[in-house]
Design a protein that fits this description.
single chain; alpha+beta; 6-stranded antiparallel sheet; 5-stranded antiparallel sheet; globular
Length: about 800
């Protein structure tokens, strides 16, 4: 069947509807996590949830919100299609938000639906930024970003802003109030809310559905012919009209004299050109040929609540590290930290090796806002995340730039710069750096001890300044330190500034009082990072920095009739791509034709290479390739093979690591801390007779040793089963409780008594409570016979 509107089926508004919550893969909330920042979703607010594969969508409406004791806040939401109810916790919404699957519906917009601000064309994006300037000017004059300013404030601020920006005149009051209301109602994507709508054009159908069906059959027939043209389609359409069953259609297509006037030749040519490239080849050459040509083989200042004020700063760590994957030395890294001033928790950290820039700040902010993936650190948790109201920064050029202010305005975050020469305005994070350096960095192998003078006090065999740790080992040390730091009492966190408290307890007690947040679109960080590229899409794939990205939906884009292939003398159609510098495993493609953005993932061998890879690592790898080979890069596999040869250049470093056993020392340090934390937990020890007869597992004392049967194939075999008591038959054949431990002790005493009686019969004195007769020489000689002198 000919596709009339190419690619419309992959748009979010046309996805299959999920009728139940089980179809959406909502993360299960087992209540084993720390409390999170609540969300501001009013009753009757509507939102949508995508499933894990992003090919099914469910539409919901908030019914109510209840804060249950011991459980936390729960939203009762209703499916607007099936009217089924389900509950969503704040933690579940945060997980869906992090995965880009939670989409608030912020009111209907005029014109065609645009799913993302990255899909806006340049003209509409520029118009949205102009409108945003008037809105921010009104808020600045009003001194409040959360309410509608007065008419007088709006007029004055608009006139002033128009004069400063060189515009002829400002919009009228009604238009400006509409801009401000759209900004307030759409915190999820404010720039998109302010963009002008796209007209849907003339939607009046020129012909009846029956005539359209005959025209589609004629066009399909022309593409099935080996050398069919639009004239073939026209002749076929006239033959179809001549059939008796199509007499009503023939009347519609003819004038009052019976002459055929509809459709015209130009209409037939347009309908034939609207057929996508895949369907053309499918009809003309067959399925196998179309699949080979178009389809890809996928080898595939004292705040009152947490998050009110967050301090942010960088520091250089006094320890060089090298890469355990590509085998090149990074040098001394920089670390960025965001620390909540009220609770003292570290919301997130990020390690950098490139020059500090707006890109590095984005990585730190994204890590702090979204939940962390701690699967690489079993036994450790870092549940702290959220959107701050105020971020305190120093006067680094990229932290006070226009890009930084635009980002904070878009997220609703206030930026507060410290005065030069007054680091005490960020005293909490500065003190954290000192504690972290003394407790961890200066005690790790290879530390540089801050300056050369301090290094001179140590022997040369200490190898200060020589890289011993890998990047992963350093991150593991930091995660372990933060786990203990959040559970250690610190002064200044209690009810009074002189009292001590733990950051974890302060966070759990006060996070419910923090300002509610709205979900943040993850695409925003890829958009504002500035890492863009124009790529040609072929067979649903495109290449960026030698990494191949693919998505099934891009196959539809690449076969669109408006997409030009690579041909001699013809400019290839290129699409704008965005990428998050913190993870090169995926990229976003803007498709203006469909008014949407598609997320593509690295495939095949490139997926293993790019997953979790940061942009500076990839740039470093390509730089080393150019230095070594002086040749262009053909594929990622060659790049990894060449970089693996760097191990020879670091053989001295590896030898020193083996000599000092750095990895073993790190593992011992990591394990000792984990054991200490595990043993300090309060547990309920099993006390049943059956459990007391078994050996205690000190690593997991809360569980009794399992009861084992002779065969694990026995249906009654249960490794987790621990009976309250063991029953045995007495002399009368009745089952009575028995304690094997007591019986074993009694049996042991009987054996010892029999041995003592045997020794006494042989003329040797019996041992009484460990006492031996020192005068019995023969007994001592027999006892120590065969011992070394």
């Amino acid at each position: 069947m000919v596709i009339q509107k190419h690619g419309s089926f992959i748009k979010r508004e046309n996805l299959p509807i999920a009728m139940t919550a089980s179809e959406l893969d909502v993360p299960r909330d087992d209540e084993g996590h720390t409390a999170v920042q609540p969300y501001a979703l009013a009753a009757s607010a509507r939102f949508s949830i995508l499933n894990a594969r992003l090919n099914k969508i469910g539409h919901f409406e908030v019914v109510s919100y209840a804060d249950h004791d011991g459980v936390g806040g729960l939203f009762t939401v209703q499916n607007v299609i099936s009217h089924s109810l389900m509950h969503l916790s704040n933690w579940q919404i945060s997980q869906l938000e992090r995965q880009g699957r939670f989409i608030p519906r912020e009111g209907e917009r005029k014109g065609k639906v645009v799913e993302s601000s990255t899909a806006l064309d340049d003209d509409r994006s520029a118009a949205a930024k102009i409108r945003l300037g008037y809105v921010l000017a009104a808020f600045e004059a009003n001194g409040d970003q959360h309410s509608m300013p007065s008419n007088l404030v709006i007029k004055r601020s608009a006139a002033k802003h128009a004069k400063e920006t060189g515009q002829v005149r400002s919009p009228d009051l009604r238009t400006l109030k509409g801009y401000i209301q759209s900004y307030l109602d759409s915190p999820f994507n404010r720039l998109l809310a302010l963009a002008p709508g796209i007209t849907g054009g003339n939607t009046t159908k020129a012909f009846s559905s029956k005539l359209e069906e005959l025209l589609a059959l004629a066009v399909e027939h022309s593409w099935r012919m080996r050398k069919g043209t639009w004239k073939t389609a026209k002749n076929r359409f006239h033959r179809l009209l001549a059939l008796k069953e199509n007499a009503d259609v023939r009347k519609e297509a003819s004038d009052e004299h019976g002459n055929l006037i509809y459709p015209c030749d130009r209409t037939i040519q347009r309908r034939r050109a609207d057929v996508d490239h895949f369907t053309r080849d499918f009809l003309r050459f067959g399925q196998d040929a179309a699949m080979r040509k178009h389809c890809i083989k996928v080898p595939q200042m004292l705040p009152t609540a947490p998050l009110d004020v967050v301090e942010m700063d960088y520091t250089t760590l006094d320890i060089p590290v090298f890469d355990d994957r590509f085998n090149f030395i990074y040098g001394k890294p920089s670390i960025g930290v965001m620390k909540d001033r009220m609770s003292g928790v570290v919301l997130g950290f990020a390690i950098f090796f490139e020059t500090l820039s707006f890109e590095t700040f984005l990585q730190l902010l994204e890590t702090s806002i979204y939940p962390k993936d701690m699967s690489a650190y079993p036994g450790l948790t870092h549940p702290f995340h959220g959107t701050p109201l105020v971020i305190v920064v120093d006067n680094e050029s990229h932290l006070v730039s226009d890009d930084m202010r635009a980002l904070c305005d878009h997220l609703g975050i206030q930026l507060r710069e410290t005065r030069p020469g007054e680091p005490n305005m960020k005293g909490a994070v500065e003190r954290f750096f000192r504690t972290f350096a003394d407790a961890v960095i200066h005690n790790l192998p290879g530390a540089t001890m801050s300056n050369p003078q301090r290094r001179k006090a140590f022997d040369k065999d200490r190898d200060l300044g020589v890289p011993h740790l890998t990047l992963r080992e350093l991150e593991g040390c930091i995660q372990h330190f933060l786990y203990e730091y959040h559970r250690t009492p610190h002064q200044g966190l209690g009810f009074l500034r002189t009292l001590r408290d733990t950051p974890l307890s302060r966070w759990e007690a006060m996070i419910g009082q923090s300002a509610p947040r709205r979900p943040i679109d993850p695409e925003l960080f890829a958009t504002v990072a500035g890492n863009t590229h124009y790529a040609a899409i072929h067979n649903g794939s495109f290449v960026w920095d030698h990494i191949t990205y693919h998505d099934e939906r891009l196959t539809v884009v690449s076969t669109a009739p408006t997409t030009r292939f690579r041909k001699a003398g013809v400019e290839t159609t290129k699409f704008k791509c965005f990428r998050n510098p913190t993870d090169l495993g995926h990229a976003y493609v803007s498709v203006p034709e469909l008014n949407m953005t598609i997320k593509a993932h690295a495939i095949g061998a490139d997926a293993k290479y790019a997953s979790g890879l940061r942009l500076y690592q990839h740039r470093k790898a390509m730089e080393q390739w150019r230095k070594k080979t002086k040749a262009p890069i053909t594929n990622v596999a060659d790049l990894e093979a060449m970089l693996a040869s760097f191990a020879d250049d670091l053989k001295d470093v590896y030898a020193q690591r083996k000599k000092q056993r750095t990895a073993e020392a790190f593992a011992k340090f990591y394990a000792s801390g984990s054991k200490k934390l595990a043993r300090s937990q309060i547990v309920e020890v099993a006390y049943s007779p059956a459990a007391s007869s078994e050996r205690i597992d000190y690593a997991s004392p809360v569980k009794a040793a399992p009861v084992r049967t002779r065969s694990q194939a026995n249906p009654r075999h249960n490794m987790a089963d621990t009976p309250e008591a063991i029953h045995v038959r007495d002399e009368d054949g009745r089952l009575v409780p028995s304690d094997p431990l007591l019986e074993a002790m009694a049996h042991h005493k009987r054996e010892e008594k029999a041995k003592d009686e045997a020794r006494a019969d042989d003329g040797h004195p019996a041992e009484v409570e460990g006492y031996e007769d020192p005068d019995d020489i023969q007994f001592l000689l027999d006892k120590h016979k065969g011992d070394e002198e």
